[in-house]
């Protein structure tokens, strides 16, 4: 009996121990589950923290960039103020010459007196395009680099109607006058008179005699005027400008100390050229040979106008000093795009396809 009582006591003790073990095991599982949940919550909080840190880092980078832009803008405004004060007398002189018409008269006379070459295509070479004092004003009015639209490290363009930054008053007055007044009202009529003997023949070759006569009767206007900044490493293969263009004008703005190297090169193209599209045409890409015929120097106060039947190019070797810069104004002259488009739509469908880019253009 004693052993039985001992066994029963032991059994009860074992049961109690087992119950305690079960309780401890359940508590352990609960604790493990709680710790696991806490670990998952911690991971979630860590992810949220990391995302918040990344978001704040991005915001800080944006704010830093905004601050840099504001600093550049503030610096640019300071420079504009400095240049406005420095150029006040030049601006008054420029406005006086614009108002008395002396600039326009000089430019018209210079174009009328310029020699006209015909090799490799009709080309007008103009020296002394502006009065010397006015030319110096234009050079002083070259806009800050920030006002140029940068294409790459070799080239940038300034358009008077779409400056990329605030420009000094003299720059605004000078380049707006060129773009909105002098080119359309004086230069285009003057060069149209000089190239009149070639225009109808050019259009007859492009469209045929009947349509060529109709296109030649359209008025002429200047488009896409831009001051080009070119640096070492710039290269432009021999090309013809878009087919809608009758003439291309280039005005060189060499600054004091600039050499006359790296102007514009002209080429004779082998074989007949058939332009199967309306955009810029590269003869070499179509299998033609391009023979260098003429290299026009980058000379102060000079300009070129040439019929859009000649391949031309430009090059500034990368070996030149890094601070070398070339400034030249380019503009196109041709019929109003809308009027030309309407005439092209009257052409047979196969011919229209060669003008697809013009027909698809929005303006």
Task: Please characterize this protein's 3D structure.
This protein folds into two domains: 1-86; 88-360, Jelly Rolls (Sandwich). The chain has nine helices and twelve strands. The protein has helices at residues 2-86, 88-100, 102-113, 132-140, 169-207, 209-216, 337-344, 349-353, 356-360; strands at 116-117, 123-127, 149-152, 155-158, 221-230, 235-239, 247-252, 264-269, 290-296, 302-307, 311-315, 326-334. An eight-stranded antiparallel beta sheet has the order 1-2-10-7-12-5-4-3. A four-stranded antiparallel beta sheet has the order 6-11-8-9, with no helix packed on it. β1 (116-117) and β2 form a beta hairpin. α2 packs across α5 (169-207), α3 runs parallel beside α5 and α5 runs antiparallel to α6 (209-216). It starts with a helix and ends with a helix.
Characteristics:
alpha+beta, single chain, about 375 residues, 9 helices, about 50% helix, Jelly Rolls, about 20% strand, four-stranded antiparallel beta sheet, 12 strands, 2 domains, eight-stranded antiparallel beta sheet
Give the arrangement of secondary structure elements.
Layout: H1 2-86, H2 88-100, H3 102-113, E1 116-117, E2 123-127, H4 132-140, E3 149-152, E4 155-158, H5 169-207, H6 209-216, E5 221-230, E6 235-239, E7 247-252, E8 264-269, E9 290-296, E10 302-307, E11 311-315, E12 326-334, H7 337-344, H8 349-353, H9 356-360
Antiparallel strand pairs: 1-2, 2-10, 3-4, 4-5, 5-12, 6-11, 7-10, 7-12, 8-9, 8-11
Helix pairs in contact: 2-5, 3-5, 5-6
């Amino acid at each position: 009996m004693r052993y039985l009582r001992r066994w029963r006591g032991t059994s009860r003790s074992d049961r109690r121990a087992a119950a305690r073990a079960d309780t401890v095991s359940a508590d352990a599982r609960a604790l493990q589950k709680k710790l696991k949940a806490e670990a998952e919550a911690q991971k979630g909080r860590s992810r949220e923290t990391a995302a918040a840190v990344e978001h704040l880092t991005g915001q800080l980078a944006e704010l830093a960039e905004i601050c840099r832009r504001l600093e550049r803008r503030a610096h640019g405004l300071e420079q504009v103020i400095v240049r406005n004060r420095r150029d006040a007398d030049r601006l008054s002189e420029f406005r006086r010459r614009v108002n008395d018409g002396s600039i326009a008269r000089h430019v018209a006379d210079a174009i009328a007196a310029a020699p006209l070459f015909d090799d490799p295509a009709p080309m007008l070479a103009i020296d002394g395009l502006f009065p010397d004092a006015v030319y110096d004003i234009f050079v002083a009015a070259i806009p800050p680099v920030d006002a140029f639209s940068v294409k790459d490290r070799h080239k940038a363009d300034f358009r008077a109607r779409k400056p990329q930054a605030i420009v000094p008053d003299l720059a605004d007055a000078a380049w707006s006058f060129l773009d909105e007044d002098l080119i359309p009202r004086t230069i285009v009529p003057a060069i149209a008179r000089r190239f009149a003997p070639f225009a109808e023949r050019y259009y007859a070759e492009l469209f045929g005699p009947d349509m060529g006569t109709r296109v030649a009767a359209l008025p002429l206007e200047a488009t896409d005027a831009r001051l080009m900044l070119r640096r070492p490493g710039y290269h432009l293969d021999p090309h013809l400008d878009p087919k809608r263009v009758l003439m291309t004008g280039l005005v060189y703005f060499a600054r004091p100390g600039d050499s006359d190297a790296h102007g514009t090169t002209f080429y004779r193209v082998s074989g007949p050229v058939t332009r199967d599209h309306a955009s810029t045409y590269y003869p070499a890409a179509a299998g033609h040979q391009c023979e260098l015929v003429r290299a026009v120097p980058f000379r102060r106060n000079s300009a070129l106008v040439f019929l859009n039947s000649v391949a031309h190019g430009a090059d500034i070797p990368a070996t030149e000093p890094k601070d070398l810069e070339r400034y030249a104004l380019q503009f196109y002259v041709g019929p109003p795009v809308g009027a030309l488009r309407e005439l092209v739509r009257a052409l047979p469908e196969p011919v229209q396809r060669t003008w697809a880019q013009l027909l698809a253009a929005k303006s």
